[in-house]
Amino acid sequence: MNGIKRHWPRIAVTLIPLIFALLHAVGVLQLSVLQRLDDIIYDTRLRATMPKSMDERIVIVDIDEKSLASVGRWPWGRNKLADLVNKLFTEHKIAILGVDVVFAEPDDSSGLQQLKELAKSELSDQPVFLAKLQDLSPRLDYDGVFASVLAGKPIVLGYFFTNDPQGRSSGVLPSPVFLEEALAGRTLEAPEWTAYGSNISSLAAAAPMAGHFNSFTDPDGVVRSVPLVAHYKNAYFESLSLAMFRAIVGMPRITPSYSKETFLPKAFQGVDKMLLVQGDKTLGIPVDRRGGALIPFRGAGNAQGGSFQYVSAADVLQNRIATGKLKDKIVLLGTTALGLFDMRVTPVGEAYPGVETHANMLSALLDGHVLVKPDYAMGYELVVLVISGLVLAIGLPLLSALRAVILSTGVLVCLLLMNIWPYLGYGLVLPLAGALAMTVTAFALNMSYGYFVESRSKRDLANLFGTYVPPELVDEMVQDPDSYSMKAMNREMTVMFCDMRGFTNMSEAMEPLQLQQMLTGVFSRLTSVIRANRGTIDKYMGDCVMAFWGAPVESEDHAQLAVKASIEILQVVREINQEHHLAGLPQIGIGIGINTGSMCVGDMGSDIRRSYTVIGDAVNLGSRLESLSKVYGVDIVASEITKKNTTGIIWQELDKVRVKGKEQAVKIWSPLSNDVQISSSLSDEVKLWTQFLKMYRSQLWDQADVALLNVSRLSPNKFLYRLYAERVASMRYLPYDSEWDGATNFETK
């Protein structure tokens, strides 16, 4: 929660694309670029998943350029069309024929009408002419000839709806599949037309089954879907592909079906299926809110596309098609001739035959795999946007750049999988562009904000603290730069003073350059140890290094780290002395003082020069303890509070002291080992030493002498024991002091 509060400006910036995406999803802010991106995604996905295989069930009889060159220009006489249809049914035994052509006007190409006018006027008194005309009329009535061929056959004619400003229509419409009353007050946003162009009455009567061949053209001019039902006046009419499908499966009746959200008023319950009902059998065809479905293109168009078998109409008329090749086939009669203007722009081709769009739709209906954008697409998009947007808004500001990339990539992958799975499995086309654009934009804004805004503060922080703290701590600090500053504050910390012994003698015996090189080498190695243990270098004071733990990065184990660093410093000094011995350089000694307590930390410098340091009584005591290391002949002296804040370290109590400026005495300790598995001799030594201090502070000098003698045998060369031997020897002659607390007073710093 603190991280969220700390990064709220960055979170707010990341939420901006989410807000725009939500407004677009609900239709308040129409972003054409997102709609275009959704179209591109759909087209790409469609092309990538097309089966690119031939549907052997459907054949297209093509009025192609070859047919126009062989038979004649369009329109053909309907006697030729009658011959074509007759051959398809009687000779080739096709199962059903769908006609992607409208016959809106009578065919006068035979001249019959002119002959009838002559019979009424100039040749009305010529019985031979009149008799011959009566004999020829049935054969010259091409519409009648065509109608007689159509009659009684499974043929579905085509027609179209239009929005004519004057509402001019032609031909005869087929019977509607259902009326507005079937909606019962619910919503079906099917396209509503004002006019139509249908077939002449004689043909409509001969072949009453018909379907419109309208399509939806998207704003970019691409045909991606067709209306399975179209609205004209108070009735709904089926498409050519749906009419053919119904004819194939036994002419079930059509009933609109609606989503089951009963909590919504009827006016808001949109259509989601067209139910084909026949007896006790029901088949649901999913549709979108407009009563349409997306065209599931099988592949590239035309005969070369390989999705459907193309047969030239001229080859059928001229008997160049092998018998049985078209038997039981579903046939669509249409045209690919460019001059007949039935080519459309589709996702799979810029000159796609209109007749093949119907073939694709019919193939999908037969397979039961219709692509549709469901009525809940908006709700789905809103849920996906909110979840992914909040994940990014909260997650990105809290993560490093690499992890932010991983999170964003993971969100993108999830979005793609959640979109592709219902598409491949259930034919559901769900919006994706808004979520993808939101994810990419949120990532870009987040990274930009992090680089241009937060990185600047991080760079400032790194420049501010880089000379004091190790790079590892700087890396931690820049993750939350607002939490660090040089403002003074009180905090419990641990301070360490590390002084180089014998420096004065060395400085007198060495050349300045040689001394500088030696000091630089020693301090560099000591600094590396301090930094490796998360310490902050305060300053170098001649031959002394001052460091502290617990700031600027807080650490609960600051005392542990300080003691660990001091023990490692002793090991480094041993290595340095070995190197000095081989190089003929003087040996160095180290005295370290460590104290833990409340200190004031912050910038204690000037306007000209900053100094990030610690001050306070606890710091002063740490300095005093360092000077006591020489008194007690040990390398490290630590206060009791430091000792209490460590674990896994074997300590030896040195004394109880009262330093200058302090009235209260404190116990001081020295670490013997940071390995809890100590030897039995060291364990015995610590126990005997503890017994000695008890006798010493009780002023039982004889017993103290005995205890000191016993512990000295374990470490005969230890300066500490010789120091106390001298103290006991001098103090045994003093009278018993009941007010003495066992502390040693030091009046010098």
From TrEMBL:
<feature type="transmembrane region" description="Helical">
    <location>
        <begin position="430"/>
        <end position="452"/>
    </location>
</feature>
<keyword id="KW-0812">Transmembrane</keyword>
<keyword id="KW-0472">Membrane</keyword>
<dbReference type="GO" id="GO:0006171">
    <property type="term" value="P:cAMP biosynthetic process"/>
</dbReference>
<protein>
    <recommendedName>
        <fullName>Guanylate cyclase domain-containing protein</fullName>
    </recommendedName>
</protein>
<feature type="transmembrane region" description="Helical">
    <location>
        <begin position="377"/>
        <end position="398"/>
    </location>
</feature>
<feature type="transmembrane region" description="Helical">
    <location>
        <begin position="405"/>
        <end position="424"/>
    </location>
</feature>
<dbReference type="InterPro" id="IPR001054">
    <property type="entry name" value="A/G_cyclase"/>
</dbReference>
<feature type="domain" description="Guanylate cyclase">
    <location>
        <begin position="494"/>
        <end position="626"/>
    </location>
</feature>
<dbReference type="GO" id="GO:0035556">
    <property type="term" value="P:intracellular signal transduction"/>
</dbReference>
<dbReference type="Pfam" id="PF00211">
    <property type="entry name" value="Guanylate_cyc"/>
</dbReference>
<dbReference type="Pfam" id="PF05226">
    <property type="entry name" value="CHASE2"/>
</dbReference>
<keyword id="KW-1133">Transmembrane helix</keyword>
<dbReference type="InterPro" id="IPR007890">
    <property type="entry name" value="CHASE2"/>
</dbReference>
<keyword id="KW-0456">Lyase</keyword>
<dbReference type="InterPro" id="IPR050697">
    <property type="entry name" value="Adenylyl/Guanylyl_Cyclase_3/4"/>
</dbReference>
<dbReference type="GO" id="GO:0004016">
    <property type="term" value="F:adenylate cyclase activity"/>
</dbReference>
<dbReference type="InterPro" id="IPR029787">
    <property type="entry name" value="Nucleotide_cyclase"/>
</dbReference>
